[in-house]
Amino acid sequence: MLKRLLFCCVLVFQIAASAKIMPGRGKFWYFAYGSNLLDKRIHINNPSAVRQTNAKLQGYRLDFAGFSRRWGGAVATIEPEEGTHMWGAVWKMDTDQIDSLDRQEGVKDGVYQVLHVNVTDAAGSTYNCRTYRYNAKEPLTGGTYSKIPQARRPSPIYLETILRGANQSSLPKSYIDKLSSIPSNGHDSGMTLDQFLNRPALVNKKD
């Protein structure tokens, strides 16, 4: 009887831990892994965003692609890869800001595409999130993280944004170490990150 009771308690705990967390009426979950890890960045266009937790996305890696004149280098994307995972932040946002998020990611211009992914937090809870993947014209090959080729390297100011946001979001130290190993392209933006983020018109400049 006691064993059966213990089994039921464990089963209930496992079900609760793996439960899918709903955002609530008029809200949605957004999984950020790039510049929107940083609260000051995401709040420029999406003031309703509230950081819920950090979470793991299975079957994808972080990579970089394209070229952003706004940032002076390649921008973050997610790339499918079996047997790996990456981390990011889950934000709860008002549904009326989906359009502003899509504009930031250039969805209508074909820069990024919308994906819906399931991510898992440290407690085992699942969040079905809106996220974005860069529409790369060619496969992203040649190395990742510390081995990213020169043509796909982000600018120092963009990397700083990601790293600040990763620390704000309390991403695992091992993952932050991987982010810290990413080489930049050395582009000089001529200003600090805080100066850049204090100029919304520049931040929102269309690439």
How would you characterize the overall build of this protein?
- The protein has 207 residues and is an alpha+beta fold.
- 29% of the residues lie in helices and 31% in strands.
- It contains 7 helices and 5 strands, in the order αβαββαββαααα.
- It has helices at residues 2-17, 39-45, 98-104, 156-168, 173-180, 193-197, 200-203; strands spanning 27-32, 50-68, 73-94, 112-120, 126-134.
- The strands form 2 sheets. A 3-stranded antiparallel beta sheet has the order 1-3-2, with no helix packed on it. Strands 4-5 form a two-stranded antiparallel ribbon.
- The longest helix is centred in the first third of the chain and has 16 residues, at 2-17.
- The termini are far apart.
Q: For the record, give the distance between the C-alpha atoms at the N and C termini, rounded to a whole number.
A: 66 Å
Q: What average pLDDT do the residues reach?
A: 91
Number of domains: 1
CATH topology: Hypothetical upf0131 protein ytfp
Q: What is the CATH architecture annotation?
A: Roll
Task: Give the number of helices.
Answer: 7
Task: Spell the H/E element sequence.
Answer: HEHEEHEEHHHH
What structural class do helix, strand and pairing data support?
A: alpha+beta
- The number of E-state strands comes to 5
Q: What ranges have pLDDT less than 50 throughout 5 or more consecutive residues?
A: 1-17
Amount of helix: 25-40%
> Quick one: CATH superfamily?
Gamma-glutamyl cyclotransferase-like
Measured by DSSP, the beta-strand proportion falls in 25-35%
CATH class: Alpha Beta
Overall 3D form: globular
